[in-house]
Design brief:
This protein is α/β, with parallel strands linked by helices. The protein has a domain of about 70 residues: Nucleotidyltransferase, domain 5. The protein is built from 3 helices and 5 strands. The chain has a 5-stranded mixed beta sheet with strand order 3-2-1-4-5, with helices on one face. Helix 3 links the parallel strand 4 and strand 5. The protein is rod-shaped, with a radius of gyration of 29 Å.
């Protein structure tokens, strides 16, 4: 008795589309990884609709012509670090949790705002920007 072996067909997986998809995914992740900069300072702005308020320990104001004030005293931007450091150290000695609240005029430049943020970051304190709730939808 002669038994014939069944002829098994060879299976083949079509992978040409997988190569294209993998290439597209690789390019996507390369582009996204160059856009994500870990050295960017994230400023968390408070929502204007909510009613939560930060404990205002140090208030830095910036007027429309980019003059800086701590409280009511005008300060030079070059001495911002030393002036803030003195005030923050006094508050920390009293046991307060220190944060810097920035009151900036809407016509003040972003460089002025960034100057205060950098000073607060160097001193290791949290900085928030106060907002006006009027006119918010």
């Amino acid at each position: 008795m002669k038994l014939r072996k069944k002829h098994k067909g060879e299976s083949e997986v079509f992978t040409d589309a997988l190569n294209d998809i993998l290439f597209i995914l690789l390019m996507f992740f390369l582009i996204v990884s160059t856009l994500a900069n870990p050295n960017v300072r994230k400023a968390s702005l408070p929502k204007a609709k909510s009613n939560t308020q930060s404990k205002q320990t140090v208030v830095v104001s910036i007027d429309s012509i980019n003059l800086f004030y701590i409280g009511a005293q005008q300060i030079d931007p070059l001495t911002m670090d030393s002036t803030l450091s003195l005030i923050i150290n006094e508050k920390r000695k009293e046991g307060e949790e220190v944060s810097v609240v920035i009151n900036a005029d809407k016509r003040a430049s972003i460089e002025s705002f960034a100057t205060v943020l950098r000073s607060a970051d160097r001193l290791g304190v949290k900085a928030v920007m106060s907002v006006d709730k009027k006119g918010v939808e």
